[in-house]
Design brief:
alpha/beta; 610 residues; 24 helices; Rossmann fold; transmembrane; binds adenosine-5'-triphosphate; 2 domains; elongated; six-stranded mixed beta sheet
Amino acid sequence: MLKQRPFLIETLTAVGLIVAPFVLPHLGFAPNTVNRILVWGLFGLGFDILFGFTGLLSFGQSAFYGTGGFVAAYLLTRAGFSNVLGALVIGMIAAAATGYLIGLIALRRTGIYFAMITVAIAEVFFFVEFNPLSDFTGGENGLPGVPAPSFNLGFTTIHFTDGWSLYQFIALCYFIGIIIALRIVRSPVGAILSAIRDNPLRASAVGHNIHGYKLTAFVIAAAYAGFAGGLLGVLQAFMPPDAFTFDTSGQLVMQTAIGGRGTLFGPLVGATVWLFLQDFLQSALGLGAAWKLVLGVVFVLLVCFLRGGIIGGLVDLYGLVFGKHKRTEAEPDAEVTQPPAPAPMQARKVEHPAYSGPILKATGLTKRYGGLVANSDIDFSVNQGELRGIIGPNGAGKSTFFKMLTCEVPPTSGQIVFGGRDITGLKVTEVCQLGLTKSYQVNQLFTGLTVRQNLTIAALAELRGKFRLDLFRTLSGVKGLTEQVEHTLALVNLTRRADTPVSELAYGEKRRLEIGLALATSPRLLLLDEPLAGMSPRERVETVKLLKSIARGRTMIIIDHDMDSLFELVERVTVLQEGRVLVSGTPEEIKTNAAVQEAYLGGVHGEIAA
Ligand SMILES: Nc1ncnc2c1ncn2[C@@H]1O[C@H](COP(=O)(O)OP(=O)(O)OP(=O)(O)O)[C@@H](O)[C@H]1O
């Protein structure tokens, strides 16, 4: 997420665009090269939102670049449409609509499969342009005669013909493009896109409809591509057929990687390097087609040694020169030993206020993995305000049971009722939205973000619901967000570490943040899967103290192997063995239960938590 320094980036961009025509000619840049760089930069703004911010690597952006470009060019050259800006906007809308339809299909898969689908889609569009639609697109001849923009102001008409004159129009388009892109990445949607890039599983588990947000990023990228494609036709007075080629998509990916992904300006910087090298090596050094060899070497070196691209490298250098304080190990955390007593956080509204039974009731819950029965015929219920512990030997089925309760995995048979509502078969996102969530046995954090940003992602899910298109709202405009995040920071004793990146946290702090992520969604029922796992004895003592303070007024179910600590925390304990409920009772009853001792000690009697 970009730092929110009001209007600094916007102002610097405006200044850069204004001085560029006075400075760049002295550096050997022709106006046409600068205009091409801006078109690529604009194309890349949307792509960076998709790739850099959301983590979706598409090789199919040429499909939308070509669609927007050819729709605009067709309107201006064959359909008698004379308003250039209007044609560009229509082209952009056509590309966005195409992006929506393609996204519905492509986003059904992730990772390499998503990338492969986008390659295939780009190829289909290329074929369609050259064959069935060649009457409209001009086939291999493209569409010549695209007019330059002009604006009639009544008393005079402004013409943006070519060179630095056309630059003014393209620079204005780029400036509007960057303003919109900055608003998007600073909005709640932008924050959630970064969370999806870092950990899609957790983003959906805290209650966000990640498919909806990914589709949004896909459509935004298509819209930018469509507008940039239209500008390409205007810039060249001709819509070239190669807009649709796979090379176009590949060049965009490489330029973004060279400049720095997740920075918005990376594609612009990458395009500058690319086009400058192209002009310089081809014309000045007379390398001809061999210039791509040099580009290839530059690309490999950059990817190997500057993983954040040129902008990422500059940011790192800035950090080094100006001595950004980097901690390698955790500072002593005085707060841990003295947990504050924050005001109780409001649990969310009860969905069925008339319902008075247990908050959670599972009946006949069974989970089979092929021939292996992980859980078998479990009947289980928890009352409002209860603190329940679950214990059992390794492989007893405890985590699987939690996964079924939170609807991460569907049960093979059985029913789960939460707050009076049958939630069997719902999605994890919906269940979290109803107020049932868990902290994970193995940390599932947003590792590229800070502690505060992590908790913000979780709190946004509760405050905004699973999907909302507030693309132009700021995070500070989300009512109650700051309070909820600050409150959760205090609850898990991470206030002093709020702006620390997750990668710099000590293990115990990461475990507390893991619990914090679940807490920040204000759950009505909180499940904690081995919250003490992997902690040192000191961290355990502190975390138990912390859990006691969190537990006040909440309904919680806790799995842990540390029975001393667990028995200190909970009122009742359920013991699982070989996927079945062995027994339930108070900690005292469980400690002395012969069957439990048998399960743990293989028949050697004695108190298990002595
Ligand atoms: N996705 C899966 N596919 C196949 N088998 C699985 C899967 N998940 C769990 N199991 C099996 O189900 C059984 C119960 O596993 P589970 O992780 O629920 O136990 P657990 O009580 O949480 O164990 P631990 O205390 O070691 O975390 C184990 O035999 C495990 O190997």
